[in-house]
Structures are given as structure tokens and as C-alpha cells.
Amino acid sequence: MTGPHDMDGSDTDPSGMDTSGTDPSDTAPPDPGAAVMALLAPGAPFEMAVEDVLGEPMQVFVQRARSLRELLAQAGRFGDSDYAVFHDGGRRRVLTFADHQRRVASVAAAMTDRGVAAGDRVAILAANCPEWIVAFWATVSLGAVAVACNGWWTRDEIQHALVHTAPKLLVADVKRLARLEGEDPGMPVVVIEEDFADLEAFVPDAALPDVEIDEDQPALLQFTSGTTGRPKAAMLSHRNVVGFVQVVSFLGAAQTASVGLPSTGPSRPRLAVFPMFHISGLQSASITPMATGAGNVWPMGRFDPATVIRLTTEEGIYAWNGTATHMFHLLQDPTIGTLDVSLVQTVGIGGSATTPELVRATEERFPHLVDTFTSGYGLTEAGGMVSHASNAMLKANADSVGMAMPTVGIRIVDEDGLEVPEGVNGSICVRSPLVMLGYWGDSKASSEAFLPGGWLVTGDYGRLVGGELFLASRLRDLILRGGENVYPMEVESRLEQHPAVAECAVYGVEHPMLGQEVKAVVVLRAGESLDLDAARSFCGEALAGYKLPEYLEVWNGPLPRNASGKVVKAVLRGEADQTFIEE
User: Strands 438-439 and 450-451, how do they pair?
Assistant: First the structure.
């Protein structure tokens, strides 16, 4: 998850004392480090302590909700403020925090009446809509487990997920049910367009459920992106998801405190375009607002950059969030010239890497965001957040993904599970209250995912230097050329700096003597050209000879990606078809 963050100036210091008109020589500049550490001090909002988490001592936030239902109940303080605003063509649908909670309570009562109990699964298979959010919150408030189904799955993928997770109830929209071609899914179905209104009106004055919920019981089954095979269902507990919310909230508070601004709360909404089954659509845009009170604007249907640009003005959206592909579409849309660029105070990229070309294009359109890009690292199994890199870190080292977030531990190990010396590349392992419980119904994969002590093996390769994490590559993507390791991300980062390259991907191809050689696939900017010799020459200015591509393919159109925005290299290699089509 990456993106720039920009703060407005202020005449008020953190103490609340008005300093406008004060002689600057009489006012000491704020100490950013001290301001951030104050957030973690005893009694502060993000105070930490060591507690037992599933048999392992871990740092946790002391002041935390013990369940998602408790987090939902606490959000009652935001009352009639907008929680989610949906735009469906000419229709504007609004959920305030208070109205949302009333709907959740009624739907939870209706689910109970239909036999759903704590521990049962409720699958949600639908496009982004208010009913998706309400169904999720009703499910977890009952102590049941929400199964976040990928809305772009085909018939076979839907059937696999339903058989694998055995839901007690399926909540789905008509379009996705049609993919089953009339086949009985094997459990009762609530059709959103036909049945959901009855659930919302089942007990209009219902209270939230009061069933006991343990913070370490499963709350959510969220499927991995499946770039290398059939997706697995990561089990995330109430503690895991609440932990994500706290880490994100801390990051926002720390960025505010570090520039000496008071935390006054959000006044304008953010853009929400990620699918709700994705971390950025669910944990970030649908769950975190319960702690922050920050609303979101959701354009429904197929992504249309002109609509987003119009809504930015109409709704006063201050933050754009999306994949790199979303951002390129927005920046290249003809109507962007009508936008008051000062409205957009931050641009966040999730699900895929931020390329130098995207940074350049964003800063050209939004000059006030120059030098504000930051970067982060996370994965579904680690609960979504591991580390965060400041703009200064990125300027110093483009492959930095920053320092571990509070409560998160990082360890680099070799193939035997032993820690490697500082600065040596190895397998990145993570331990934190955010890390998943395991994979649903797959004890073998769960066992292989963890080292003793609760350390998650991320499948990524990198190194630690002074506590700063540097990402090298996915272990499964590592290219072994003549006994030397080639990290695709390193070659990709270099190629992306070429002025002719809009985006690229690098992978290994078989070689009878060397084992593998390097192949690069590039998408060129309009009117540009690039051949293999030029690409090798450019890369050779910064990379060793064995890392240079031996093959270059120019790809027509954007690179194939999954619903999370990640490049599917199996499609580039011809091993799979591109099944994801944005709707």
C-alpha cells in the first residue's frame, strides 16, 4: 500500500495555543520524533504493552476494541455523519454512521432468525454496494465469519470457494448468482436486489447482538490474490482486523503530529474504488472509518475516471485512492483539466507498486504533492500492514519499504529458518497481532506458512539495515541465473525509470546451461519505442551484467492484473488466461 500524504499549514500548535503572529525566534520548532513517541507513551491513545497472543508474547495496543462489534458500537459517536456515499448512475445512496448501525442490528437479527450463529460462515458475493457493508457488519457482530468472495470469480471459482468454506448463508447479487447458471449453491441465498430490504426492516429497533466474542476467534475469510495458483482463504480474527485499524490510525496520527498539526478529525471524504473483498476496500475503506469517522465516496459500476473527477468536486473528495491503473486513467482523462487540483490533498496507491512514471505524472498534475510520496509493505496473511517508508527513505533507497509499524516484528531468515546477518537478503518473516490465524481448511499450508514462535513466512525476499526493510522480490519469482540470484523487482525498478516505459514486469525463462535467463515485458508510453539493446544498455548503467534482460517483449495494452491490481505473470508466460475483466 503506497501513496503520498500532504498536510496543510496551520496557525495552531499541538497544544492548541494560537501562535499566529508570534515571533518565530521565540517559538521552538516541533520535534517530529518526540511528537510521534508521545502518541505511544503510557496513557496515550497508542500505548503499547506485551501480552500473550495465542501463546506468544507480543506487543499490543492497550486501548483497543476487543471485537469488531465493539468497534462498530464505539462509532455511534459519529451519529449522522456520512459513513459511505454510493453513486450509482444518477442515484445517490447515503449511509450515515447511525443509520448503518440500525441496519446492521436488524440484519443481524434476521440472520439469527435464519439460523446463523457464532462460528458459522456467511459468504458475500456482490459488487460494491451498501448491502455488502451491512451484511459484513451484521455477520461479524453475531460472532459469525464473513467470507469475502471475489466479485470477479468465474463459476468454477465461486463453486470452489463455497464448497471450501461451507457457508450457512450466501448473500449475493443477481449478476454473480447468474454465473452459477442455475445450479443450487448448496445453502440458503439472500438475493440483494430481492430480499435484502426485508432483512433491513426485520426488526427496525433492534439492538446489536450481545453474543460473547473472543478477540482471537475468526471474523473474516479473505482470499489471497492467487497470482500463482488457486487462492487460499486466510483466516483473520477480530484482533487481526482491529489491529490493522489501529496501525492505520496511528500512521495518520503520527504524520499529523510530525508536522506539528493538531488532530481535528476529517472534514471531507475519501475516494473508495477498491472492491470490498480486498483489504483496501474492506479493512481500509469500510472498517477503519469506524475508528476515524472519515467517510468515503463509492462510485458504483465500472470505473469511470470522468465520474470520479466530477464527484471529487461535487462531494469535496480530498483523497484519491486506487491502483496504479486507476491513477493513470484519472491523470490521462480529458476532464481532469476541469478539476481544482487543490481539492486533492493526498493520492494513495494500493494493491500494486508505485512506479516512477506514476510519481512524475502525479506530481506534474498536483505540484503541491511533490516530495510527499510514501510507501508501505503488507500482505493479506500479515493482516495488511507490516512497514511504512517516509519520502526521505524512498529518495535515499527506492527499494525501501521502511520501518516496522508499531506492534509488528520483522525477522530475516535463511532456508533453515536461522536469522541472517544485517544487510543480507533472506526470507522475510513477520510476527504481530495482525498476522492471520492460518488458512481455512488447509492445515498443511497453515503449517508451512509459520516458523516456530508464530513467525509468518511471507514468501517475500529482502534485508534489514538498521531496522529499515528493503524488499528484493517474491521468493517464487526469484530468478536463478548461473548460480546468481536475480530479483525481478530490482530490474523492474530500473526499467521503470526509462522515459519510454510506462510499466513493466520481469520473470525468468528456462535456459539449458544457466538454469534461467531474464526476460522483460514492457508497456511503452504513447509514441515511444525501445529495443533489447537499448534496454540492456540502460539497465547496465545501474545493474550487474548477469541481471540484464536477455529477452524483451513489448506488450500491447496494460499488463494483465488481478482484481487486487497485481501483475499476473502467469498470463505473461502463457501459462494462464486473463480471466479478470473490470466491470
Answer: unpaired
pLDDT confidence of residue 288: 96
Q: Which one has a higher pLDDT value, 298 or 459? A: 298
Side-chain-side CA neighbours of 431 within 13 Å: the count stands at: 17
The domains of the chain are located at: 3-8+31-61+238-474, 96-214, 480-572
Whole-number Å distance between alpha carbons of 38 and 139: 37
Categorize the per-residue pLDDT at 193 as very low, low, confident or very high, splitting at 50, 70 and 90: very high
Largest CA distance in the chain: 75
Count of beta carbons in the 10 Å neighbourhood of residue 323: 24
Contacts of 388 (CB under 8 A, 6+ apart): 251, 374, 375, 376, 377, 401, 402, 403, 405
Q: What backbone phi and psi angles, to 5 degrees, belong to 222?
A: -120, 125
Render pLDDT for 506-545 as a digit per residue (tens, 0 to 9).
999 988 777 789 999 999 999 999 999 999 999 999 888 8
Select 96-214's CATH number: 3.40.50.2300, 2.130.10.10, 3.30.420.40, 3.40.50.980. 3.40.50.980
Query: In angstroms, how far is CA 450 from the centroid of its own chain?
Result: 22
* CATH fold of the domain at 480-572: GMP Synthetase; Chain A, domain 3 (3.30.300)
Q: How far is CA 290 from CA 94, 219, 315, 379, 443, in A?
A: 16, 16, 20, 22, 33
- Picking from 241, 290, 236, 246, the residue whose alpha carbon sits closest to that of residue 406 is 246
The predicted pLDDT at position 322 comes to 87
For 267, phi then psi, to 5°, come to -120, -15
Is it true that 96-214 and 480-572 share their CATH fold? no
Distance CA 583, CA 386 (A): 31
Domain 3-8+31-61+238-474 classified CATH 1.10.274.10?
no
**Residue 55, Ramachandran bin (φ over 0: left; ψ between -120 and 50: alpha; else beta):** left
Mean per-residue pLDDT, 161-167: 97
Q: What is the pTM of this model?
A: 0.82
The count of C-alpha atoms lying within 13 angstroms of the C-alpha of 181, restricted to the half-sphere facing its C-beta, is 4
Report the distance separating Cα 319 and Cα 558, nearest Å. 25
**How many other CB atoms sit within 10 Å of the CB of residue 396?**
11
Q: How far apart are CA 123 and CA 112, in angstroms?
A: 15
CB 45 within 8 A of CB 63: yes
Quote the mean pLDDT of the chain.
88
